[in-house]
Amino acid sequence: MTVQDPRPEGAPVIPRPDREALETLLASLRDRYGERLQTGEAIRAQHAHATTWRAPQPPDAVIAPRTTEEVADLVRAAAAARVPVIPYGAGTSVEGQVNAPAGGLCLDFREMDRVLAVNAEDLDCVVQPGVTRKALNEHLRDVGLFFPIDPGADASLGGMASTGASGTNAVRYGTMKEAVLALEVVMPDGEIVRTARRAKKTSAGYDLTHLIVGAEGTLGVITAITLRLHGIPEAIASAACSFASLDAAVTTAIETVQSGVPVARMELLDAACVAAVNAYSDLTLPAAPLLLLEFHGSEAGVAEQAETFRTLADDNGAMGFDWTTKPEDRTKLWQARHDAYWAAVRMHPGKQGYSTDVCVPVSRLAEAVSAAAAEAESRDLAAPILGHVGDGNFHVLLFADPADGAATEAVDAYAAWLADLAISMDGTCTGEHGIGQGKIGALARELGPALPYMAAVKRALDPLNIMNPGKVLHL
Amino acid sequence: MTVQDPRPEGAPVIPRPDREALETLLASLRDRYGERLQTGEAIRAQHAHATTWRAPQPPDAVIAPRTTEEVADLVRAAAAARVPVIPYGAGTSVEGQVNAPAGGLCLDFREMDRVLAVNAEDLDCVVQPGVTRKALNEHLRDVGLFFPIDPGADASLGGMASTGASGTNAVRYGTMKEAVLALEVVMPDGEIVRTARRAKKTSAGYDLTHLIVGAEGTLGVITAITLRLHGIPEAIASAACSFASLDAAVTTAIETVQSGVPVARMELLDAACVAAVNAYSDLTLPAAPLLLLEFHGSEAGVAEQAETFRTLADDNGAMGFDWTTKPEDRTKLWQARHDAYWAAVRMHPGKQGYSTDVCVPVSRLAEAVSAAAAEAESRDLAAPILGHVGDGNFHVLLFADPADGAATEAVDAYAAWLADLAISMDGTCTGEHGIGQGKIGALARELGPALPYMAAVKRALDPLNIMNPGKVLHL
Fold first, then answer.
1. What are the pLDDT digits (tens) for A364-382?
2. B363 CB near a chain A CB, below 8 Å?
3. pLDDT higher at A381 or A121
4. Which of A341, A374, A400 is the last residue of a domain?
């Protein structure tokens, strides 16, 4: 498998480590870790999985550490040999975060998947990075707590912290930035640090927690995460209603946020998404823009929230508003939402999907969504839109045959256009997917003057540039 | 006025800049800024105000910049002369954050006090750093929005961002870490950067916003702040109730958080605080531990919250629970809470006060508060306790005659003991006051292995160590 440059953004080719140093490192790791060090082509290819048509760039070797000390040992060894280290969670990132453009050692966290502590009284827990969000919620169910952040995929919590993930529920419960109280991190020199204590608040020193959250493994490897939890609400209600236009749906979403209704989830699906979901999940939703909502609170509270929302929706000409607290109905609705991506991919046989992600101030959301739809149409691209509209965050799903260079280029060009549209509205090129390899150029367009300082931080903490090189920034 | 070493924590004396370079700088600034550059002893002393008995360390000159470009010009000039820059907001910090141990140029933000934008639809605003929280809320009242973070003092928003402030309301609305969406910062080399856009969420690059929030001016000077706002709730209710013991009050607070009641404020005053407040504010509260609460929501919502709380309080033997939505009654109660510090100081004539601040996991709060009270008693120190107990954050008010070295040392020793107690409970030496000069040693005890990486970030961004030197870290 040859290493390919992933995107036509002028990305420099990251130099591969010295072959001899790499071989010496692998031999030494094989001595210590035996068969656990894997270098077979299939396993390497699996760990270069990029979820889109981005060219896979496999690491030279894969190992699944079992303890923080093993991670520290592996990072120290890699640093001594100047070999890249690429952390790997569930492989669900979409901007090439797990690719290995210069090869190197992939640390797969599948064996560090233990919930280390649940502090129910404090509404927090400590997990290893390989725990997935669904596994955590399974674990928590018996104590009446839940972890709200839900990006759709059953991502690992280490990956979610590293990319600053969020998803549905963020409008009420925040993103990984708000959820992570503290981290244990193996720094690029192999030292183990805790970034903070377990208190709910701290003003103690520089906020290394937030520096590592969203750094996509480029400043260190997360080995444990202290997360805020929430009590499972007394009552949960779900609601759905359709609108004659995207604009009416988005306007309703904006007004709901502005009116202070504490919605837990508020998701938009455009007509194309709804059609895909109907076909995939055997539903009969009207083929029109749809808002899906969830309300959390007391029995009286969720009823009050639903009624306030209904008034706003009615004023915007909503059709068929309905709400329910029945678990089976709620599950069906939200499963359909989560399947929207796969439902849309199925509508485009022979093509791969790419979900691009922007976030704009809520006041610009209707304009942004309309412009995104119109531009896609003018470029003759199928581009269903869905998103976490309570935050101004939306995704456009794009499709291309990976073998069709013109098609993938057309999609990449549209994604770059969309990033620039968001930036022009004082928004961001990524609300939750991160920069990875795919949005390095967009980040420069968004925060240009700040980039030298991000690079200075990177060089200060990782002077050898071994931590997930080629992501977030070009050095 | 001579420069004194502020605390016996082994702090190195920060080298003063070259006298000639300083004089050349001041002459050149006088050419450009005329009388606006102030070097009189009185004004310099005013800007070394440290709110406690910490030895004042005045800057060499004070200037009030009017624009971001002026700040950039001043920082560039100071950097060229290797002269320290000390940002100054309202002077309400308590850990020596505005002291100038090596002299230098104090930037007083009193003239950068404009609200630059209120984006009511987006629930955000952009302010200059000299706007105080009360001035912002005055400005917002007409649009039905408010800025919730309330540290008691009418601090400047630049100072609040720099120290990672919070206060009452944080239990519901978070701290400055959650409130700041983006910053404009003059970096130590004089470049102007924006750390983020105005979107509610972002995963775009390293989180420079959170790196600067809480950095106490040591990594750059904040020149504009984008803040999250909230709708003024439809209904606000305040409640107060007394308990037979500190433990019963704290247990009620913990249970309230754990039960998911979305209290907006939940403040504890111990019996000594209540006595001081009664005397100061002409109230007749029972001389017993007191919880003060505020509930935000709909009319029905706040009633429901208050009743849920009442049940929990009753189970813990609360006395005289009462709640009200009358604005005049609410104001009186909260004014008394805000005056608690001054009320307690008045009880100790001839002495100055020092409010020390720790935060522990909520499950350890009762134990921490009891231990803090017992230890103060065993050391024969008056030490009223009050705090934001919903977060596990509490303050112990300490008193000493600044001229009585044994007394100030006894208080400092107790504060260090308290910091270590919090750290031993997996808490932090400061929940909201910051490190400044006073807690550099405690920070090292709390996060030791992380300190070299904080120092690396500091050196990378401020290689000349001119930004508020001698705070947060010893380099």
1. 999 999 999 999 999 999 9
2. yes
3. A381
4. A341
| B220 and B296 housed in the same domain | no
**B450, closest residue in chain A (CA to CA):** A193
For chain B, what is the domain count?
3
Contact criterion met (CB < 8 Å) for B393 and A201:
yes
Q: B243 with B202, same domain?
A: no
Q: What is the pLDDT of residue B190?
A: 98
Q: Which two tokens stand for residue B470?
A: 């001698």
Question: Considering CB atoms only, which of B194, B300, B452 is closest to A300?
Answer: B300
| 0.90 exceeded by pTM | yes
Same domain, A128 and A162: yes
What digits encode the pLDDT tens for the residues A325-352?
888 888 888 888 888 998 999 999 999 9
B304 and B272 belong to one structural domain: yes
- Residues B318 and B416 grouped into a single domain: no
State the residue range of the domain holding B395: 347-436
Residue type, B102: A
The mean pLDDT of A148-163, rounded to a whole number, is: 96
Would the CA dihedral through A147, A153, A156, A162 be positive or negative? negative
CATH of the domain at A163: 3.30.465.10
Q: How many CB atoms lie within 10 A of CB A21?
A: 13
Cα gap B137→B142, rounded to integer Å: 9
Q: How far is CA A125 from CA A131, A200, B73, B210, B361, in A?
A: 12, 12, 47, 23, 12
- B117 and B227 in a single domain? The answer is yes
Q: For A4-60, how does the pLDDT look when each residue is reduced to its tens digit (9 = 90+)? A: 333 444 556 678 889 999 999 999 999 999 999 999 999 999 999 767 778 899 999
Q: Is residue B33 part of a domain?
A: no
Beta-carbon separation of B206 and A219 below 8 A: yes
Asked whether residue B66 is assigned to any structural domain, the reply reads no
pLDDT at B236 over 60: yes
CA distance linking residue B463 with residue B79, whole number of Å: 10
Mutate which of A126, A173, A203 to disrupt the B interface (most B C-beta within 10 Å)? Answer: A203
The verdict on B266 touching A (C-beta cutoff 8 Å) is no
Same domain, B250 and B212: no
Residue B315 pLDDT class (50, 70, 90 cuts): very high
Do A121 and A225 share a domain, yes or no?
Answer: yes
Rounded Cα distance, B385 and A465, in Å: 49
A76 within a domain of the structure (yes/no)? no
**Which residues on A lie below 8 Å from B301 (Cβ)?**
301, 304
Mean residue pLDDT across chain A: 93
